[in-house]
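Job type: complex structure
Entries:
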Amino acid sequence: MEDCIFCKIIKKEIPSEIVYEDEEIIAFEDINPVAPIHTLIVPKKHITSLVELKEEDTNLIGKIYLVANKIAEQKGILERGFRVVVNCGKEGGQVVPHIHYHLLGGKQLPTRFM
Ligand code: AMP
Ligand code: ZN
């Protein structure tokens, strides 16, 4: 996707602070963090949002959560706890139309959603 900002990050056309990368998934620091730890976990495949997921993406999405655990461990919050959030569509607060998972932590997060 030519105009997609996350595809550009994946292709290294835009700089980012990458914390994890493999063949299918990249994770980088959110440019505008809302918590001490705010990392975005992004499949390299351009999927616009949750509603565009296909059966064939099932494994990929499972791996996202394993990467979340890995990053949480690296950042020392595996035991303390953290949150993984995905926004979907306009009312869901999704701004970037390339599916991504927010890994949030490093402080007490509100017990109810913001
Ligand atoms: P969402 O509202 O779920 O679509 O989240 C988009 C997230 O992407 C926001 O938290 C932004 O701060 C973040 N973001 C936008 N552009 C960049 C960028 N170039 N590098 C890192 N994070 C970004
Ligand atoms: Zn994209």
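Summary: The radius of gyration is 14 Å. The helical segments are 5-10, 58-74.
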